[in-house]
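Hi! If you just cloned this repository, the fastest way to understand the data is to look at a raw example. We've pasted two of them here, unedited. The first protein comes first, obviously.
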Amino acid sequence: VQTCALPILFFNRNLLGAATAAAGLTSIALIWTWRRRRLVVMPAAGLVFAMSIGRRTDSITPLIAVGMSVLAGAFCVLWVRASDEKRRHLRYLPPAAIITGLVAFLFRDTVTGWFGRSPSMTGRTGVWYDIVDAWSRRPVHGFGFMAAWFDPELRAALRARGRNLWEAHNGYLEVLVGGGLIAVVALGFLAWFVIAALRRSLSARSPHAPWFVAAVMFVAMVNLGETNIAANRLPWLILVAVSVQARWSARSLDDR
């Protein structure tokens, strides 16, 4: 299914992979929450179903995103339970993870070989170069929502690569080419709101903080390889909903 009647949703093979990965992550969380109840059968069945559908999509991006979200959630569990002395050591883990990710991208020829993938990330990097080139012609305000994909120069560049794409396979580049620097600034304000909400939830030692961070990490990571911000607004709504819930949860703990 390529599209549906509602403009708020967009599904193709890769985005279905992201949706099933998110469903699997939710099932794992429910299994952990309900592990002493008979209802555990329901999320367990959901996990099996999500893994079965996700395997058929052959999309590795959501799997990487789930892995990173699990690591982020585990880090938050340690952070919430750690003493101030241990936190001084834990604070070095996020920068180390970012550096590791950058190194992996620089040496992606080797890393992608481990997963049996091409260094171009199935042609994504070439498309990204074309998108940045198109954005350079309208750097401030961009082309408008989805309008860049009707630009003759961009379509010619994509045809030269043998690609007939209508999305960037990167949510952040989709925002850049669609709204230019204005949209990047707006996205920056949203990122500030999300980070502030997560920090407040962690500072309040909310028991839900690891789940909030894991969900946001999933959305942030899956947009590196798929367009889950612009063309598909389902993860976008999840991101906003989790951020609002994180702020509310932290505020309710502060009021106690």
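Ok, and the second one:
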Amino acid sequence: QCDAINSHLLQKKIWLKNIAEDGKVLQMCDSHMQPLLDGDGKGNNYTLLSINQAMSLPIYCEQHDQKFFKEFEERELDLNNEVHLLKLSYRAFCASVAQEKRRSMFYDINPQINPFCSGPIFDDRQEYSKYVINVFEKYHDDLFQHAKKRNTSDFVFKVVRSSKIRLCLSDVFISEDVLSAAYERQEKEPPLFPLFMHVLPYENESVFIFGYDKRQCNDKIMSYIDKWTKSIEAKEIFDEWLVMANNWCVAPSSFGD
């Protein structure tokens, strides 16, 4: 057990700096939790952050963070190295686990502030959050073992290049419908059908990485990837990503374009 530090999902000196303006980016925040957990009382959907703070979460201790990701943190990410892509995706999944734990705090804090946040519906949401955390942690352990052993045989990654867009994104999409159905059936280890998504802005281009677990793949995942790789620069696809993903930031002046 060790104290977690804020770990960047994407390197600030490589990717975040390529979209920053005066060292800052615009990032989405959890509007329903931010006032409760951070005490700012504003509940804004977006916040302006320095690249030192953006896309960072307390996930690992400093020693483990630097050791596990050293091979592409100290040098540039090798887009042809599937171990690098797997570790990048593992880190994104760790962020999903951390965020779900953060959401669970909402159900512990809110009844103390608002007595109307109680009763069967609220209690069920609390139980659902606990269930999701448990399921996520089981898949996390499996994903960690693959990354640790450098075993990429169960994963497929596709890399696509396009003209540069001022967006950084690193996340894993898991359908709420999949989780809800598994919760109703109380499955202990349901397939999550994770879809790993990364958008990396370089100096003159953006690189898109899509990944999936061959053991947990369905037609929906394949249709998403097929659609995205065929029309990578379509605006409606960017809008879709920003709805599906939690961990992204944009150049402040480009938001709303």
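That's it. A detail worth noticing about the second one: The CA atoms of residues 26 and 48 lie 5 Å apart.
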